[in-house]
Design a protein that fits this description.
37% helix, globular, 5-stranded parallel beta sheet, alpha/beta
Length: 516
């Protein structure tokens, strides 16, 4: 990445903005960068210090490879537990806390000369749809928006936010506020809406920085109008930079046509150019020789993966892991009390946005088995007979399912063989980020046995699985399934460390039965 960015900067006529998605740390800029923690995990610590550290580490490592701009922090507020985009990418559901943490991140990343772009204006977290795949609407009233998302963005703007990313998210209340005759069906996502970007953001809120669109191939944008209209409309609405070509020659032609036919005025074009050049000037790019825009390579790359920065991941995990529900006397988990442990891998549906960011490393269940075995437990991982059903013909699949239901399933199979069952859910975010239960009867796949065998349910990604397992009495959100986190989890299960995290979102999902 360093070599690529060096070539880009030295060969470019005008110095470049080179952006990265440093949402969770320096790993958003380079594969060997340092993760500090997902947003919900930082929120669970309740400590803005870790957001500052996440920004600081992001800045140090992104700058080391020549980045100077970041599409972060994420300041979406998670009100809808079914939201598929920010289930673990939101600091929480409290606007004051989100603002405090975002300001801390902004401070940290700017120390390395990286300019932040808060996202996704006007705010995700109300709808339960994915703007990659469909329209998405922030349905709050103007008053509600002002007290929540507006409060966060206004606080960032007042603190000098240099740029933000507009999301393909509708805000019909404010569109109609500025254009009372507008019909709901004529409302547009923020990336195409003059009412949202020019009247609300620039006018009412006084934002004087740069606006970049979210990715232009997302259906929340492309489903609104023809692509030949999308490009010039987004610039005319108030976007200064358009993110990602579909086809460079074709898209550039659409943009030029929009200028020639007057959709993009000279005034708006010059304003967008001025803001883009202004952001580069804020970075001082115009004062540096091309060869000196990037730091010396050896010195810079030595800053990636520093031990003291890597240690933050473990520190955050210790503070974040959350015992959401504890309705039984199950702790501490020791070999004397629960010698025989069965681990059950709880699955979701593969695919979607989460598939892109999923790790191909050792599973959380496998790591947890290693850690528990080292502590003296006898640990088994349950293998469902349904795991290989996809390899069968349709006829054989039906026979297999029928056979599962026909078999004897005495409860003694569980109570005689296991002292504790731990369900481990690692379900990636997507429009179907719910648990997918196997079509079995009386097997450990589904935690029906909470009154038969002591049971602990652990989610290592999505914090909202309690909605699907309200019967469990002990539920934990670990926020990720990486080895240091699971090592810390074992310490907490065994009573060597306290559960310190406080859920920054409604992990009970608004249901009464999840509290029981």
């Amino acid at each position: 990445m360093y070599d690529q960015n060096y070539i880009l900067q030295t060969k470019s006529k005008i110095p470049l903005l080179i952006a990265a998605n440093t949402e969770a740390g320096g790993n958003g800029a380079c594969t060997d960068g340092t993760e500090v923690g997902l947003e919900v995990k930082i929120g669970a610590t309740g400590n803005a210090k870790y957001a500052y550290e996440m920004g600081r580490v992001s800045g140090v490592e992104a700058a080391a490879i020549g980045c100077n701009w970041s599409f972060a922090p994420i300041v979406d507020i998670l009100y809808n537990w079914c939201n598929p985009i920010i289930s673990n990418r939101s600091f929480g559901n409290n606007p004051d806390m989100v603002l405090e943490i975002a300001l801390a991140y902004m401070k940290g990343i700017q120390e390395s000369g990286i300019l932040p772009a808060a996202k996704h204006f006007p705010g995700d977290g109300v709808d339960e749809r994915d703007q990659h795949l469909s329209f998405s609407v922030n349905s709050l009233s103007c008053e509600e928006w002002d007290k929540t998302y507006g409060k966060v963005y206004q606080g960032l703007i007042d603190a000098g936010l240099p740029s933000l990313m507009a999301g393909h998210i509708h805000l019909p209340a404010y569109e109609k506020h500025f254009n009372p005759d507008l019909q709901f069906e004529d409302c547009l996502p923020a990336t195409l809406s003059k009412g949202i970007l020019t009247d609300l953001l620039r006018g009412k809120m006084g934002f004087n920085g740069l606006v970049v669109t979210d990715a232009s191939h997302m259906v929340g944008m492309t489903g609104a109008m023809k692509r030949s209209d999308i490009l010039p409309t987004s610039i005319a609405a108030g976007c200064d930079l358009f993110l990602f070509f579909n086809d460079p020659d074709e898209d550039f032609g659409y943009m030029m046509n929009g200028y020639k036919n007057g959709v993009i005025t000279d005034e708006r074009l010059h304003d967008a150019l001025r803001r883009t050049l202004g952001l580069k000037a804020k970075l001082g790019l115009h004062t540096k020789a091309k060869e000196n825009i990037l730091p010396p390579q050896a010195e810079a790359l030595a800053k990636i993966g520093l031990p003291e920065n890597k240690a933050l991941f473990r520190e955050v995990g210790d503070q974040a892991i959350t015992l959401v529900k504890s309705k039984e006397d199950i702790f501490p988990v020791t070999p004397e009390k629960y010698k025989r442990i069965l681990l059950v891998n709880v699955k979701g549906t593969d695919g979607g946005f989460g598939k892109m960011v999923a790790s191909a490393s050792k599973s959380a269940t496998e790591i947890l088995k290693e850690k528990l075995t080292a502590e003296g437990f006898e640990v088994s991982i349950y293998v469902s007979p349904m795991d290989n059903i996809a390899k069968l013909s349709d006829e054989d699949q039906v026979k297999t399912i029928r056979n599962e239901y026909a078999q004897k399933r005495p409860i003694a199979d569980l109570t005689d063989n296991y002292d504790l069952i731990i369900n481990v859910a690692n379900v990636q975010m997507s429009t179907v980020q719910r648990i997918v239960w196997q079509a079995t009867k009386g097997t450990p796949d589904i935690p029906f046995y909470v009154h038969e065998v002591p049971t602990i349910f652990v989610s290592v990604l999505c914090p909202f699985h309690l909605a699907d397992v309200p019967q469990v009495k002990t539920y934990i959100n670990a926020y990720d399934g990486k080895e240091p986190t699971l090592e810390l989890l074992v310490d907490k299960l065994m009573g060597r460390s306290e559960f310190k995290g406080v859920s920054p979102v409604d992990a009970y999902c608004g249901f009464r039965d999840t509290y029981i």
